[in-house]
Specification:
alpha+beta, N-terminal domain of TfIIb, nine-stranded mixed sheet, 9 strands
Length: 384
């Protein structure tokens, strides 16, 4: 009789355990630990994300209810206090290392020429309770964090994540992001900094963003555009040479302004340092920003990171890292098995069948695994 792993076990096959173990050793995550190894903490948090548990108590109780099947994963049920302490004090860098390894696996298109790589940059805000006000206070009434993300729309996955208190400006976090020479970076007005633009330009990157209404552009040349189309103008020029307080503008290279009318009638001043590409391509690149907004919405609604199970910064960073690891595991499993359903439907099916002994195909088509009959007692073992 063929043995079937649980759906949870199948999702975990993509976890780079070698990377995980080396990170645990390098950061001494299990030093002086007696009752809750970091691997058990990691699996409990992954289980919580996949099952939709909204609290530590829900994770612990649901995890314990499947104790007989945890044996095959090499873990045991956990205590709520132990899991809380682990989230507060275990190094977040362990989970960041796993995330980085999964990103490398989920991006087979990285081998292509860097000129074809598109990177979307944006940040999303997640509110916290007043219990986190010692480090995440934004105003007298609000506490929150920002997740700053670089997103690959072709691989449909994030490539870099940084978590900061909400009061940190987007451009401050962007200046610490790694830059890939030759890539195309698309971002919005939150990253309006001529010095950072100049740094990207010097690295050979293509920039696609928006110009503010009050930003003056000295026009040097203008291209003809098709009358009546969405492209209103296509002009090349330079930004002001001097900024406030007589500071020199570091972005001295020629730029291009493509004015576009959207479907709602709004006019956008799209700026790029690419002086040769068709204006329609530049407009389409900026339109791709919507992909990262959809990613933020998917993660918040499906993985429930709007409710945090920890109070301090370390616990919040770990929960966000595990949520993104969960997304990558689902994405890798969905792609590797060539499933016909969408990612949202797949995530919901995984949640409802998490500890059932089924393959992904059996999960999608319940008719492939029929209930046992009285004359087939061996098949009944699959349903226990």
């Amino acid at each position: 009789m063929r043995h079937e792993n649980s759906v949870f076990h199948s999702v975990l096959k993509a976890v780079p355990w070698g990377v995980f173990d080396r990170a645990v050793t390098a950061h001494e995550a299990d030093k002086h630990v007696r009752c809750l190894p970091t691997r058990t903490q990691f699996l409990a948090l992954l289980y919580g994300q996949l099952s939709g548990a909204a609290s530590l108590r829900a994770i612990v109780e649901s995890f314990a209810s499947h104790a007989p099947r945890l044996y095959h994963l090499g873990v045991r049920p956990v205590a709520r206090s132990s899991l809380s302490d682990a989230n507060a004090h275990r190094p977040e860098a362990v989970f960041a290392a796993v995330f980085a390894a999964l990103v490398a696996r989920a991006q087979p298109k990285l081998a292509r020429q860097m000129g074809d790589c598109v990177r979307l940059i944006d940040a999303t805000t997640v509110r916290l309770s007043r219990l986190s006000e010692t480090w995440a206070r934004f105003s007298t009434e609000l506490c929150g964090v920002k997740a700053h993300v670089i997103y690959d729309p072709d691989a449909d996955c994030p490539t870099y994540v940084s978590v900061t208190p909400q009061r940190i400006n987007d451009i401050t976090a962007a200046k610490a992001m790694p830059i890939q020479s030759g890539a195309t970076y698309v971002f919005d007005l939150g990253y309006y900094d001529f010095g950072w633009w100049a740094k990207l330009d010097a690295a050979g990157c293509r920039i696609v963003t928006r110009l503010k209404r009050n930003t003056r552009l000295t026009i040097e040349t203008e291209r003809l555009v098709e009358p009546g189309g969405p492209i209103l103008s296509d002009r090349t020029g330079t930004l002001p040479a001097r900024l406030a307080q007589s500071r020199r503008n570091p972005m001295q290279a020629p730029i291009r302004e493509v004015c576009v009318r959207t479907e709602t009638g709004k006019v956008l001043r799209i700026m790029t340092n690419d002086l040769t590409a068709p204006a329609e391509l530049i407009a389409e690149l900026y339109k791709r920003r919507w992909a990262i907004e959809l990613f933020f919405r998917w993660v918040k609604q499906t993985l429930k990171i709007t409710h945090f199970i920890g109070r301090n910064e370390n616990a919040v960073c770990i929960q966000i890292a595990v949520a993104l690891i969960t997304y990558l595991l689902l994405r890798i499993a969905h792609t590797a098995h060539g499933l016909s359903c969408g990612m949202l439907e797949f995530a919901r099916l995984v949640r409802s069948n998490l500890m059932h002994r089924k393959t992904f195909q059996q999960m999608l088509d319940p008719n492939t695994l029929r209930p046992p009959t009285q004359h087939d007692p061996r098949q009944a073992l699959l349903w226990t």
